[in-house]
Design goal:
Layout lengths: L4 E2 L10 H12 L9 H20 L6 E5 L2 H11 L6 E5 L4 H12 L3 E5 L8 H6 L5 E7 L11 H11 L4 E5 L18 E5 L10 E5 L25 H16 L1 H19 L5 E3 L9 E6 L4 H10 L2 E2 L14 H5 L4 H5 L1 E5 L6 H21 L8
Parallel strand pairs: 1-11, 3-4, 3-5, 5-6, 6-7
Antiparallel strand pairs: 2-8, 7-8, 9-10, 10-12
Helix pairs in contact: 1-7, 2-7, 3-4, 8-12, 9-12
The structure holds pyridoxal-5'-phosphate.
Length: 382
């Protein structure tokens, strides 16, 4: 069995050793943070320290942040609960399922949803703004697309939204960008920001939602009034403290990590380019950790399984939609049929090395060649 080379870091990341240690320690240190004896109060203080750290990391100390069960809950909570009735929402045509399904729920409740399509491979900020009017309750976009790495300039968008309508709330799904790009919620005039722990080397089942105006926030989960009353349910102490540790480690290594991710992506792409009939589906200025390419004539499914047999973990789209046929993001970006059928997403983390990539490249080159040999591969020169 070959050693595993994990290049699916947009789906989830390997937790840092430090994160696992903190999570395990707080399974043993099991106190309920709402209790009033000393050991419990200690746990509760640690949670508050993590809250402050996360708020500081996004320049959000003037607002608040609640811990959730992950990016999906944060997104649902922001979009479904905090859109005003009889109004509209503007979003894009290439969002994550958590947003897509939340928007569908709004439509069922009679709220108009406008989905801006990418043009020339990009979401045009002016197009989003032109779809707004005085009935736009919220604009919701993803900062970095999880399948291709496309970036939306959230600072330019945030300013333009507020210029057009001060009352429109701005929600950003930052699940793929947090800890890979700088986020400043004040500069981007963000009202809600959704984060997830397992994408930044934390553990699964934990996320956070930044809220600029907590006094106007509408709840998704009712109960015992934990999280300052904004999100009930006994806190996931291990998950929250592990998230804090992941952010602490991430911030300490921020610049270095981004430099490393960019170098990995550049090296990988340069070497992949030796393969004939390669289409690059990610933009040049994509997020540093995502590279989506198509090996034309090589069905994604077949390549995925061939690579998997050699220990290489990649995916053909987002983790949650990887079992479905077409990629919604590639579809929305207007990428050709042949490219869609053969798209593979490589996504990197600080744990990957150039030596891992060399091993992966050798296997990919061999696999592509052999699959093309048996699939009557014929590409018309375009
Ligand atoms: N948003 C984006 C862009 C994602 O990539 C994901 C996960 O793949 C999510 C939201 C959902 O996050 P979680 O898995 O924490 O629910």
């Amino acid at each position: 069995m070959n050693k595993e080379i994990y290049l699916d870091n947009s789906a989830t990341t390997r937790p840092y050793d430090g994160t696992v240690d903190v999570a395990v320690a707080h399974l043993t240190d099991y106190y309920n943070p709402s209790a009033i004896y000393r050991s419990a109060i200690e746990v509760s203080k640690k949670i508050e320290t993590v809250r402050k750290l996360l708020l500081k990391s996004i320049n959000g100390s003037q607002g608040t942040l609640i811990f959730t069960s992950g990016g999906t809950e944060s997104i649902n909570s922001a979009i479904i609960q905090n859109t005003r009735k009889d109004m509209s929402v503007v979003s894009t045509a290439y969002e994550h399922d958590a947003t897509i399904k939340s928007l569908e729920k709004l439509e069922q409740d009679g709220i108009q949803v406008i989905r801006v399509k990418p043009q020339g491979g990009k979401i045009d900020i002016d197009e989003i703004i032109s779809q707004m009017d005085n009935k736009t309750s919220m604009v919701s976009v993803m900062h970095v697309n999880n399948e291709t790495g496309h970036i939306i300039d959230i600072e330019a968008l945030g300013r333009a939204i507020k210029e057009k309508n001060q009352r429109t709330a701005f929600h950003v799904d930052a699940v793929q960008s947090y800890m890979k790009m700088k986020i400043d919620v004040q500069a981007a005039m963000i009202d809600f920001l959704s984060l997830s722990s397992h994408k930044i080397h934390g553990i699964k089942g934990t996320g956070a939602l930044y809220i600029r105006n907590p006094e106007r926030f509408k709840l998704l989960i009712y109960g015992g009034g934990q999280e300052q009353g904004y999100r009930s349910g006994t806190e996931n102490v291990s998950g929250i403290l592990a998230l804090g540790k992941a952010v602490e480690i991430g911030l300490d290594n921020f610049d270095q990590n981004i430099k490393h991710l960019k170098a990995l992506r550049h090296y990988f792409l340069e070497n992949l380019s030796e393969i004939d009939d390669l289409a690059i589906n990610s933009p040049e200025d994509s997020a540093p950790h995502i590279l989506n390419v198509s090996f034309l004539g090589v069905p994604s499914e077949i390549l995925l399984h061939t690579l998997e047999a050699s220990g290489i973990c990649v995916s053909s789209g987002s983790a949650c939609s990887s079992k479905k046929k077409a990629s919604r993001s590639l579809e929305a970006l207007g990428i050709g049929e042949m490219e869609k059928k053969s798209a593979i997403r490589f996504s990197f983390s600080g744990f990957n090395t150039i030596s891992d990539l060399d091993d992966a490249l050798e296997i990919i080159k061999k696999s592509v060649k052999s699959i093309r040999g048996i699939t009557k591969y014929k590409i018309k020169v375009r």
